[in-house]
Specification:
single chain, about 250 residues, alpha+beta, 2 domains, about 35% helix, elongated, transmembrane, Surf1/Shy1, Surf1/Surf4, Cytochrome oxidase biogenesis protein Surf1, facilitates heme A insertion, membrane
Length: about 250
């Protein structure tokens, strides 16, 4: 008898309940336990994600409801500054606009517009101004109308947009503006501008001076989706366990 055949025939336990005999094999038990462990782990991971999102959503809601503060009166910690409502007074650097490429809004293709606002002679905050449609072609960039006088604006502080799948690197040139970016990196933008930028981005509120179509990243986190995924993993675990019991249970004649 081969080893594989011996393993298949080996039975861990033999349990009789009335006219039924539960007699699982070692191979089916090992496979079932392995899959149950994986699926249960994924279920609990989804529950952890849901709890994380609930906590983060509560933090966002609480911070957005706070009164607007000046940018120099904020906590030092980056995490404590995220999602805080902020107001600044300054002047757009209207000669230097950045277009973040490959963006869509309401089914339209275009750019996300970023422009620095100088709040002192050597310091500025990069402003997310919203969405603008693609020009007639990629060779003909849209016209970025920007206020030239001093402005007072309000928005929500957040990190720079995450760098997802990048199809190309940013072009290192300063001759033609606006400058199209494949991804946003505050250090690179600061080097291009030649002056210091604040370490976070101010996402402009609707109808503020210089704003375009409002496309603030969605801050409503859907924890229900993760709870749904967790339920699916637990349901599949239960189904697998039932199948394991049924397959290894025989009726005694």
């Amino acid at each position: 008898m081969s080893i594989i055949a011996a393993v298949r025939q080996y039975r861990l336990i033999s349990l009789r309940i009335t006219s039924y005999q539960f007699n699982p094999g070692i191979l089916s038990t090992v496979v079932t336990v392995a899959f149950l462990y994986i699926m249960m782990s994924l279920g609990f991971w989804q529950l952890d994600r849901a709890e994380f999102k609930d906590t983060l959503q509560q933090k966002i809601t609480e911070r957005k409801s706070l009164s607007t503060s000046g940018i120099d009166k904020l906590p030092q910690s980056t995490d404590e500054r995220r999602y805080l409502p902020v107001k600044i007074t300054g002047q757009y650097d209207f000669e230097h606009n950045f277009l973040l490429d490959n963006k869509t809004f309401n089914g339209r293709v275009g750019y996300h517009v970023f422009t620095p606002v100088k709040i002192t002679g050597t310091r500025a905050v990069l402003i997310s101004r919203g969405f603008i449609n693609l020009g007639k072609s990629r060779d003909q960039l849209p016209v970025i109308e920007t206020p030239e006088s001093e402005i007072n604006i309000q928005g929500i502080l957040d990190l720079q947009p995450s760098r997802a799948l990048v199809l190309a690197e940013n072009v290192n040139q300063t001759e033609h503006w606006p400058l199209v970016l494949q991804y946003l990196d505050l250090e690179e933008v600061s080097q291009t501008l030649g002056y210091e930028l604040y370490d976070m981005v101010l996402w402009l509120n609707e109808k503020e001076p210089g704003s375009f179509e409002y496309d603030l990243p969605v801050l409503n986190l859907n924890a229900a989706k993760n709870n749904g995924y967790a339920f699916q993993w637990f349901a599949m675990s239960l189904a697998l366990f039932i199948i394991y019991i049924v397959v290894n249970t025989k009726k005694i004649n």
